[in-house]
Amino acid sequence: MENEIQEARPLNFLEKIIEDDLANGRVPNNTIVTRFPPEPNGYLHIGHIKSICINFGLAEKYHGRCHLRLDDTNPAKEDMEYINSIKDDIRWLGFDWGKYEFYASDYYDQLYEIAIRLIKEGKAYVDDLSAEEMKEYRGTLTQPGRNSPYRDRSIEENLRLFEEMKEGMHPEGSKTLRAKIDMASPNINLRDPALYRIKFATHPRTGDKWCIYPMYDFTHPISDAIEGITHSICTLEFEDHRPAYDWATSIDGIEHTPHQYEFARLNVTYLLMSKRRLLYLVNNKFVTGWDDPRMPTISGIRRKGYSPESMKDFVSRVGVAKVEGMVDYSLMEFCVREDLNKRAKRLMAVLDPLKLVIDNYPEGQVEYFEAENNPEDPEAGTHSVAFTRELYIEREDFMETPVKGYHRLYPGNEIRLKYAYYVTAVKVDKDEDGNIVAVHCTYDPESKGGTTPDGRKVKGTSHWVSADHVLKAEVRQYDKLFKAEVPGAATGNYLDDINPDSLVVIPEAYIELEAAKAKVGDYLQFIRNGYYCVDSKDSRPEAMVFNRTCTLKDSWAKQKKKMGL
RNA sequence: UGGGAUGUAGUGUAAUGGUAACACUGCAGAUUCUGGUUCUGCCUUUGGGGGUUCGAAUCCCUCCAUCCCAGCCA
Predict the structure, then answer these.
(1) CA-CA distance, A357 to A428, in Å (whole number)?
(2) Mapped to the 3 state alphabet, what secondary structure does A373-440 carry?
(3) Which ipTM score applies to this complex?
(4) How large is the average pLDDT for residues A314-323?
(5) Is A265 a catalytic residue?
(6) Distance, angstroms, CA A230 to C1' B61?
(7) What pLDDT is recorded for position A564?
(8) Quick check: is A164 catalytic?
(9) How far is Cα A464 from Cα A396, in angstroms, rounded to an integer?
(10) pLDDT score of A563 more than 90
(11) For residues A359 and A131, what is the distance between their CA atoms, to the nearest angstrom?
(12) Rounded distance between C-alpha atoms, residue A86 and residue A260, angstroms
């Protein structure tokens, strides 16, 4: 029953509300119903993961259910491609909405009838004010608004005009249906909010059936009510809309009354979390698409090799509260590394090859060594790796004149070639420009397997690849898309902080043959280089492409930086 | 200068009247066939001021700071 022991995590404020509601019989059928309601106008990003985990997580925890509802009330911006990607991304995270898949557009007929009812009750009216005029009549943050001259039209006229709007008899922008609330309200959302606007756009699901579309403040609360949502959880910027939400759910005839609660959206340093800006990056080719591994979209991080488990862990560590803050990117990387460390298959890949020749090793001889697939998990087994006289090591792993603290290969120094032998550098070959083209060394046959009978230690262990047993593949070294913690903070333009080195392509890296078995979705670690995955779009069996998921922690790099190297 | 919210180590989140804590980051060290992992230790915290109380991060007053709102977007 060990796995039944609940982690003693304190309740967040939403859980407290829910437990209180449950305890006091305020929840119909004692069944918590939440919903995740994205607008299909772009791809889901890391910020949405928080919302998804909260809504689906709460439903799971309290044995209720979570609806997926696509908030498709603005056909001008929405697309089927987005709907499909959203569903895909939620599934990837491991959540299942079962049969509870809804669309705001499912409720267009009901919404229309409610609007008619409001008109009949004198609670809504058709306004002829233009957008500019309406803005003027609305007043400002500090000044109350004025009533529209059309506010007191007769019910009959309103009914007729709204019908005409629906029939397409009026051009876009010429008329709106507005709620009659209070133009002097200190809350601008209550100054006769628009309920319907005219839009001659083809809707991804309803096609050309409608040319009037309901607004968020009208649609969302009523959709919640129709679906029996008990806790309607959204982000902080909707706090001001809660009175509008409550207005809509208290319209006569609406029986179920959900409540809205707001939490702080997720902000992460170095990342942009705005669909508008992400769309700009896509449209202007700063990235290759919504699923570019540098994008903070779910499809992007997935293609980059992040695991859903690590992301769920990340948002759970971030917690849920009402404080608008900025989470460190390093926490996210920590979560990715912690998860991948436990499950990534280890491989040796030489990204920047330097030839190493073992002068005293027999030419033509091949030995096979056992390489562990994962030192963190003995069950993961081993694979074999070929060893020959000529190898490649990382150029970084040799220095002709070592700096202080360097304990890799340099003339006279002995290191271990992982799993294989101890080698000592003897001399270097250079080209006419003085560049090192090969390093010669000798090996100690006694050190076979990586230890010696005399038990002597070496400070360095390098990974390597046999020159004759090598998979040549493209490796894409991804880094952060932006180099500033808050892109645009300095100049006001986030494009100024684009990281020019966010992608460095290595056209031909040398990887041990075992890598050829890797498939899309596998988690890999190229020892001492980082975590990698097979690119889901561009990799082919005969021309593999690997993406860097994230680097390993690198204390040597840190130390070098400190020494000013 | 209207309304709505929020202030706890560098960051995020706990503690709801009774010893301010956990994680990440950073720093130092140990271990290590990955300069990874693991382990140990260290650093730094209740926005300011007043009040109530034996006792305040918590209750009250006040000031300050930050965020959101003037779409026929969501």
Answers:
(1) 10
(2) CCCCCHHHCEEEEEECCEEEEEHHHECCCCCCCCCCECCCCEEEECCCCEEEEEEEEECCCCCEEEEE
(3) 0.97
(4) 97
(5) yes
(6) 37
(7) 82
(8) no
(9) 12
(10) no
(11) 82
(12) 23
Pairing, β A503-512 against β A470-478:
antiparallel
Nearest nucleotide (C1') to the CA of residue A239?
B4
List A87, A123, A146, A265, catalytic entry: A265
Picking from A224, A157, A250, A146, the residue whose alpha carbon sits closest to that of residue A192 is A146
**What size, in residues, is chain A?**
565
Residue A128 CA to its chain's centroid (Å): 43
Measured between alpha carbons, how far is A394 from A295 in angstroms, rounded to an integer? Answer: 29
**pLDDT at position A261, please?**
98
Look at residue A258 in the predicted model and tell me its pLDDT: 97
For strand B, which nucleotides have at least one atom less than 7 Å from a protein CB? 1-8, 10-15, 23-27, 33-38, 66-74
Answer yes or no: A277 catalytic.
no
Give the CA-to-C1' distance from A261 to B20 in angstroms: 29
Among candidate residues A290, A334, A312, A313, the one with its CA nearest the CA of residue A45: A290
CA A403 / C1′ B42 distance in Å: 29
pLDDT tens-place string over residues A410-466: 999 999 999 999 999 999 999 999 999 999 999 999 999 999 999 999 999 999 999
A266-316 confidence digits (pLDDT tens): 999 999 999 999 999 999 999 999 999 999 999 999 999 999 999 999 999
Q: What is the mean pLDDT of chain A?
A: 96
A456 CA → B9 C1’, Å: 44
